[in-house]
Design goal:
Layout: H1 2-12, H2 22-30, H3 34-51, E1 60-70, E2 74-85, E3 99-106, E4 131-141, H4 142-145, E5 151-158, E6 166-174, E7 193-196, H5 207-214, H6 219-234, H7 248-269
Antiparallel strand pairs: 1-2, 1-7, 2-4, 3-5, 5-6
Helix pairs in contact: 3-5
Keywords: Exocytosis
Protein name: C2 domain-containing protein
Domain C2: 57-188
């Protein structure tokens, strides 16, 4: 590739420098495999979470998190979701929110939901400063845990009984930055940390996302972009996310419909 760039620059009478050439950088990133581009995307979002300064008005989540190695080349990830502060008002009628936390391993091609389901906290009613103190554990293959770009996507959502759940914000924690614990018991969790929960922003969709978006015949790229664009455009979880809280209303409707059908069958039978 360097040789091709050199000859192109000679034809264009442009000075060639591998380190500084924008042409070289763009050609290189366009040749990057889909899986690596997706990892780069999450690396950048992890950096965004880590480097964001927290003020009194920042939406935050307080938690304790750590891991211990297990037999069979597995990692046991433990976390205590403690509380959130400054959750935005997402219910205009109550002028409050009904927040809950969703924990998801990313990227999805590494951590399919069938093998790595996404746990959620309980829903806290009408509060902008919810408290949970809920403990979660996840088992992750060691070969995936330490890959640069593998991360936890932690979302705070506002539960809506009638409509869809709105995303209040997200944080991305690189798995490789999570501290090791002395033991698997909850008492061995590291000290609590406070992380910013940031709103979905156009700034998070960089050049790697634009390249992936153009790979319309690549199933991995398409699934990734569809998922992220749904969140960007609607500020809601996509239907394929399998969130129990999201589809609770639909399940209730289905159950009520089935009850009515059964009553009708029994009535007609007699």
């Amino acid at each position: 590739m360097e040789s091709a760039c050199y000859h192109i620059c000679q034809l264009l009478k442009v000075v060639w420098n591998t380190e500084e050439s924008q042409l070289y950088k763009e050609l290189k990133i366009n040749k990057t495999p889909t899986e690596d581009l997706i990892l780069q995307y999450y690396i950048r979002l992890g950096d965004r979470t880590i480097n964001t300064s927290i003020t009194d008005k920042t939406q935050t989540l307080t938690l304790r998190i750590g891991y211990v190695p297990m037999t069979g080349q597995q990692i046991l990830l433990s976390m205590l979701i403690i509380k959130a502060n400054n959750v935005p008002i997402l219910d205009i009628f109550s002028k409050s929110s009904d927040p809950y936390v969703r924990i998801e391993l990313m990227p999805r091609y590494f951590f399919p939901l069938e093998s790595y389901p996404s746990p959620t906290t309980e829903i806290r009613q009408k509060t902008l400063n919810p408290k949970w103190n809920q403990f979660f554990r996840m088992t992750i293959a060691e070969s995936k845990f330490f890959i640069n770009g593998a991360c936890l996507r932690i979302s705070i959502l506002d539960h809506d009984v009638v409509l869809f759940n709105d995303i209040a914000g997200e944080a991305f924690i690189p798995l490789s930055t999570i501290p090791k614990m002395a033991g698997s018991e909850i008492k061995n969790l590291p000290k609590q940390i406070i992380i910013p929960i940031l709103p979905v922003s156009n700034n998070q969709y960089g050049i790697e996302f634009m390249i992936l978006k153009d790979r319309i015949h690549d199933n991995v790229a398409k699934e990734f972009c569809d998922y992220e664009l749904y969140i960007k455009n609607y500020h809601m979880l996509p239907p394929l996310c399998n969130d129990d809280n999201e589809f609770r209303t639909e399940a209730i409707k289905t159950l009520d419909k089935r009850k009515k059908q059964i009553k009708t069958v029994i009535k007609n039978a007699f």
